Input
Amino acid sequence: MSPIARHALSLTTLAIASLGLSACGNKEAAPAATGEVTIKIGHAAPLTGPQAHLGKDNENGAVMAIDELNSRGISIGGSKVKFVLISEDDQADPKAGTTVAQKFVDQKVNGVIGHLNSGTTIPASRIYSDAGIPQISGSATNPTYTQQGFKTTFRVFANDVHQGQALAQFATQGLKAKTIAIVDDRTAYGQGLADEFKKAAEAGGAKIVAQEFTTDKATDFKSILTKIKASNPDVLFFSAMDAQGGPALKQARELGLKSAFLIGDGGCTPEFIKLAGNAAEGQYCSLPGVPLEKMPGGTVFKEKYKQRYNQPIQLYAPYVYDAVMVMADSMQRANSADPAKYLQEVGKTQYQGVTAKVVFDAKGDLASPAVSIYQDKGGNWNFVETVFALTAPAAAK
Amino acid sequence: MDIFLQQIINGLVLGSIYALVALGYTMVYGILGLINFAHGEVVMVGALVAYSVMTALLPTGLPPVLLALLALLVAAPVCMALAWAIERYAYRPLRHAPKLAPLISAIGVSILLQNLAMMIWGRSYHAFPDILPPIHYDIGGAQITLLQVATIVLATGTMAALVWLIQRTAMGQAMRATAENPAIAELMGIPINRIIMLTFIIGAALAALAGLMVGANYSVAHYYMGFMLGLKAFTAAVLGGIGNITGAMLGGLLLGLIESLGGGYIEDLTGGFLGSNYQDIFAFLVLIGVLVFRPGGLMGERVSERA
Output
């Protein structure tokens, strides 16, 4: 099978290369034709499997942006354009993620929004980079994504370096933790965040007394939690998504583990509180950016989302919405939807989005990312403080 | 010591759930020589139906135990009907086909059920309601909840009843005869189609109970939960000797204990070389060991006949 696959792959790359070459010639002719020009935006997220609820939320955000753009009746390069969203399921699986990426390249999408997970975003980014297609993720937080030297990678979300530092700072200063236990789910996201957290927490004077691991499909955490209980830490940092974090917190309390519980953005959802039940009361999570209510266009967006989908925003929808808007904005400024032409404009973005003013640094990360800490009070995540907001471009690491 | 005891308790609870599910795999294999890969999904349907019934009845203010009982009274028939349909339409037409065909059909049913469940219950994780008051008992520093006690007692009781059913009743005799040799059993006047159906239905009832227990113990239900649980339970069945009832129970309990103790002590045992990210290797190492040195499983005997 593999020789055939390799053959097919090289054929497709060849095909893409030749298409890329001829594309310039074709584009000249396009405006002459009357009627609308279609701009294809690829969107990738897990729409099945354990994280499907988050993937659907991302897709909802993208759909809202696309519909709004189309209702504005935008013209690019002299002709009226119609944005079309091509949404694909990457199953949160790196292999499926690259397949989706190849599919987008074959379909000649003008840009890609996503993916949701760091584990899929990073391998897929190479494919987009090779094809010269700009990619903006609204949720992948692993720092590696923008540090591979690709010119096509952008994100409208603080990365794990920012978030890990902010969480550790809150644990050691806000909660005055001396001993900390860490659990991570061995995904690119969980592991990356845990590593940054550990570095910053140790620098902050705390001792890491236990480091345990789980998976992003686990439901039983009693074995590792029992082990953590033996070291009785001040803070338990759970570096995983809500689907694991919620039940884990509940199980921790059943075992009599009393440590303060801290989880990153993957657990900063209504779902987490629903799953953890009463155990969530008083526990903490962090979210890149500022709270929805404090966002420039947050309240309006929240209402619009609720009206349209009849459910609360899960997590990343506003960021994905902004990602689409930033992409469309760059195309308008470049007056072209040709990836080769509008790519430079993405880097020069100064866009006032729903979530924040989007300005990128040299790597494609946000120039001034903020990270906020929330605490559960009576079944809602309440804003505590914004811990970390770099005003200068993020320190190159 | 209290930590060790706690890990044993964790393992026993997990193990008794594995055992209940493993019984479903092993009974069907014993009779048909078929690995019913859709069985994990039946557990999932059981858990989600129980979840729906309980959340729907929650406003009535009935005591949670009663709710759980009602949930089981609905979930069990639903699972049994589902198993009936699976056997009737996905397996029976393929009974005389090559062994690979029903296996592929089983995987197909499994994917179908997952997607149906996704359409009915959505993609979200559902918080499973508490079915018993959160009472803790302290045993030598370890915590055991009333729910955990109930899980172990209920699972053991159910398994004892199943052994009685198979060893002591006429129906059980018919099941054993069908497992021995379907063709001869039919000649002896045993309605083998009905017996096979019955096997599936009993397995499904156990699956419904297991679904309720998984949901209650780990307080979460999701359309995807059956997959891994099914794999682990299948491993437990192989560990005990697939086709063997007592073996499935023993395999389930052992696997639960191995997972729990393995996850808790792997770091100390390997001097920090391996962490709890290698939790699963214990279970599968044991499985490989069993397959190499005792291919029939711990309690299996006549594996060559079946293979």
Remarks:
- Chain A touches chain B through 36 residues (CB under 8 Å).
- Residues 184 and 191 of chain A are 6 Å apart (CA to CA).
- The longest helix of chain A spans residues 2-29.
